[in-house]
Amino acid sequence: MFELCRPNKITSDESRNNRSIMNLELEVPVSKQYSYIRTTKSAKKKTFSMRHIPLVLLLAMLFSSINCLATGADVPSYWAADEIVRANELDIVPQTLLSHYQDAINREEFAQLTKQTLCVIDPALSDTTLDSQYFSDTDSDAVMFCATLGIVNGYGDGTFQPSLKIKRQEAAKMLYMAAYTLGKATTCQDGLHVFADSEDISTWAYLYVQWVYEAGIMQGISDNQFDPFGTYTREQAVLTMLCLYDYTMGNTGQKIASDRTITCSNGDIRIHNAIDSLSGGTLFTRNYEIFNGDWVTMGSYVSNGAASGTTLVARFLTDSDWGQIKYYDRTNEKWVITELKAGTYNASMICVMSGSVNYFFYTPRAWKIHTNCTLEEMSNHNGYLNIRQGADSFTIELYAYNLGSDLRSDFTCVSSRKESLIDWTHPNAENLWKTYTLEGDGKWCYDGYYFPAPESYIPSGPNYYYRLPAAYLLRSFLAVQSVHRVALDLSLCMMDTLAQQQNSEGFFPTMSGSTWLWDDYGIRAGFYDTRFNSDLVEMFINGYSKYGGDLYFETLQKYSDFYIEYANEHHRTTAKGGWFVDDYYHPTGNRRTHTSLNHQLQEIIVLYKLSDMLSRSDLSALADKLLLAIEDSGADWIRKDKNLHYSYSADGTYGGTDYPYLTYNDLYNLQKLLAARTGKTNDTLTMLMKYKKAWMDTNGVTGYLK
Q1: What pTM was computed for the model?
Q2: Which pLDDT value is given to residue 445?
């Protein structure tokens, strides 16, 4: 029923909060490696110590963000992140190369990568006796290893020039000679070059380039160029070395970045990641086989600029020659339902019902890739859904546009043979789902949840979206998953996507930079935001309570461990021993931040819930300390106008403008939780709620919890 197209398979700031926290206050949703790869083999604690944590994928497939740069140096590009993780797990990458991924690799570094890869493939090579020959400008063991095996040569003057950036045709020769050393190099025919610049390739390198191309180890660049004298980045070098590993180890066909299984109370979720080479770019997919029999595919097509027009990125089949199609017409603000027939459909969300098969599509949405996990919406280049009619069925195709090499198109497909994915008979269903078409502020993308970037974020601009750790669309889907089958399917897959963004310290970073956090506190991109993390963790707790099993149990344990140590190191003590915990943190930050009342309240709520779920008394004890800080300060939070101060600063003063009703809702939720846990309410919370409500009533604020 479902086939991905796989030809040519390759074997907080205030303004921020005013916009995004507002989502917290809605009963219905508003409308996703930190693909950051951090090795734990030599990582050092920068601010506080934590137990050793294995390497994790932080953004999603890749779990990724394309060019998702924290500081621009230590984050691989979107298309490289998952494979770099895999290469590191295979131990073919020297630890010194797991950073500065976009930097051009030099000759000595490429030799180091080559040596380590060969010794993993054939451990006996580790015992190679090095020739006594030494180049005049390097005594590197890796260089001598490669020279001994004939993989590299020096220059006529006896130098190796280790710091010289390696050229692409030089890399091609080294890759061929490495395969030759392993007995895996084959002959190739001359004159078969497909590159437009083949005449620029040096005579000595011609057949090497031909071989690595035919073997699927190296490809060209945009516009059908090989660029023989161009440099090679570290991440490109790692990926081609991984291709060499797969070639020599007999791993042919589709490359699977990872296969995983997640256990829920009702069964398993099997996850398959794939990377495929298409005519105009690279297709990344994450495929979920849900325990209820449904399938979910999340995809991202990254064009390489080498082709024009469109590329078919996914294909699906119906099991009958009749059916219906339904989508929301945003222009005319109405739902359209019509018979299933051939044609092109441009809506962002489309439902197809045919025979026993039901499909739900988020059609390809186009984005320009910027640094710091920021995307620029390119709505004029959004893809589309095309339907072709056959003899006894329909073929459904998704097309994405081939644009520049820094653009991507993200899409999602859900299929079910069991029942309708959306219960259109349910009261308010149409009203609800028109908010889920991804045409509002909140956007679900391949690697997470995106929201309009405030002007103070880096980068920012018209139609710029930053990746927001707290995916409020997930919270909405969790709320309606018992009614709408597609919400259950997508909430499980969204949680998986978001779980991969947890970094090695245990928190979920906001990858954007913030001018005010930098100016006030020296906090860089990739910072920890207690509110966003608390909100996201609460969603994981909610998901765990609904789906059970081992669903992200380790994710919550890891975050709990992080928060315990973070609070120990980043708090201010009140008169009776309460703790005010800093709102923000970055490992390189050197100044303490303020504590917002709404942040502290939500942290308390989440700590109590984590304590109950994980049976950890240390978490509830910490929650008690945070609550004691609020009790200690009490009336100090009340302003003369009966509104509440926003925050408690490092200098001991209260100030700032509180949100209209967000903090009241947090007070309400904590009070409700305490009543359920202890059988009584908290007097300090009651007082603060009383003053806040008086201010809201005076100022006509509505929408708060009652």
Answers
A1: 0.69
A2: 97
